Amino acid sequence: MASFLLNHIALSVKNVDVSVAFYQKVFQFEEIENTASNSKTRWLSLGEGKQLHLIPRPNLEVTTNKAVHFALSTSNLEEFVKHLINLKIEYSDWTNTIKKDYVRKDGIHQCYFQDPDGYWIEVNNAGS
């Protein structure tokens, strides 16, 4: 069987400019060239060759729950949570307790929040 690596995450977004600004403000992701097309889709680098593709869909209505999310890791979750607070971005734990992170059975701390379109994002300290 062939092996696989994550290449990119693609999200449909109402306003691509608002979404790019959000992901740059929250994560400082660098915008990179969309080499696939001349569309208004914008790409951000997640590092290590991974990408986030933001595809404009002005009539989008996102309906999802926290179990449908993508997760990013940081070595300093406490500092990142302070960053969310400074940006006035509401976060919660897995059980929806506002302003609280969650400790999994394996000891990993995590918090959840939503982007402007309602997509759930988990940030944890699994990589530390």
From TrEMBL:
SUPFAM superfamilies: Glyoxalase/Bleomycin resistance protein/Dihydroxybiphenyl dioxygenase
Coiled coil: none
Residue span(s) of domain VOC: 5-126
InterPro entries assigned to the protein according to its UniProt record, in alphabetical order: Fosfomycin_Res_Enzymes (IPR051332), Glyas_Bleomycin-R_OHBP_Dase (IPR029068), Glyas_Fos-R_dOase_dom (IPR004360), VOC_core (IPR037523)
PANTHER family, per database record: GLYOXALASE_BLEOMYCIN RESISTANCE PROTEIN_DIOXYGENASE, LYASE, PUTATIVE-RELATED-RELATED
Protein name: Glyoxalase
Organism: Polaribacter aquimarinus
